[in-house]
Structures are given as C-alpha cells and as structure tokens.
Amino acid sequence: MGRFGSSTKDDIQQLKKNRIPQNTLKAINFARRLFSSWTKEKDLTISIDESEFSEIAAALPMFFAELRTQKGERYRSNSYHVICNGINAILQGRDQEMNFYSNNLFREAFEVADGLIKGIQETEDPKGKRSDAITEEQEVKLFELGILG
User: Which has more confidence, 29 or 146?
Assistant: First the structure.
C-alpha cells in the first residue's frame, strides 16, 4: 500500500455523516420531535424542515412560550439551550444564512427563548436537581450500616 489508500463511495458517505457530532444529532432530533408534536397538537401545518422560514419564525415564539415536559412542567434551562441549538442546526442545515441566534427574522423567537431561559435560571438550582436532605433517623441508619464514615 502506498501513501494513499483506497476508498469507496460508502466511505465518503460515512465521513460526511461523521461530521455532525452525536450530541448535535440528538439536539436536532429532540427539537424536531418537540416542534412536530407541538404543531400537531395545535393543528398547525408548519414543518421545521420544509416550511418557509418566515412561517417558522412566526410560530417559534408561541412554541417556546407553550413548551412543557410531558408532566406539564417547564424544562430546565439547559434543555431549552439544547432545543435552541437543535433548531439552529436544522435551520442552518437548510440554509447557512439562517441563524436562530443572529438572523433578524428569528429575533422575536430568540428573545422569547432567551427570556424564558434567564427566568428559569433565576429560580433553578445551578447544580441540577438535588435530593431532599436526609432525616436524622436516616443519618443514624447510614452510620449503623457503615455507609457513612
């Protein structure tokens, strides 16, 4: 074998596929699923993959305002960041000029998402969910079991 190996079209396709990190793909799929579920629930015919950018931009502020977990609660702020990044990746996959964070077309949606994230950050524990403090009885039991020093 010389300096240059041989490749197939499949090798080229795999290399192109690898250029998008797995976390980005997860963010894209998460955002796509949420937006699709929201449009279906609201009986809207907007597709984040196919609709005009102006239609998507008009829908996104309400999407963010109404977005909840399956339990009906707000997501944690980092989840909203993931959703924004996923939306941005979808938009840029369609057109490099479309940037959720900086394109004026998406300014209102970005401001709603940003305000939502900052509002949540003010009230959430920065280290994530924490368990309730243990009771004195639980502490004694943990000492007796040798779990605590």
Answer: 29
Phi, psi of 117 (to 5 degrees): -60, -45
- Hunting for tokens 């305002």 — which residue is that? 65
**Mean of the per-residue pLDDT values of the chain:** 90
Q: Which of 145, 73, 58 has the alpha carbon at shortest distance from 106?
A: 58
Are 110 and 98 a contacting pair, CB within 8 Å?
Answer: no
Per the structure block, which two tokens stand in for 98? 């479309």
10 phi/psi in degrees, rounded to 5: -65, -40
Residue 136's pLDDT band, with cuts at 50, 70 and 90, is confident
> Cα(116)–Cα(36) distance, rounded to whole angstroms?
20
Kindly write down the DSSP assignment for every residue of the chain, as one continuous string.
Answer: --SS----HHHHHHHHHHTS-HHHHHHHHHHHHHHHHHHHHTT----TTTS-HHHHHHHHHHHHHH---TTSPPPPHHHHHHHHHHHHHHHHHH-TT--TTT-GGGHHHHHHHHHHHHHHHHHS-TT---PPPPPHHHHHHHHHTTS--
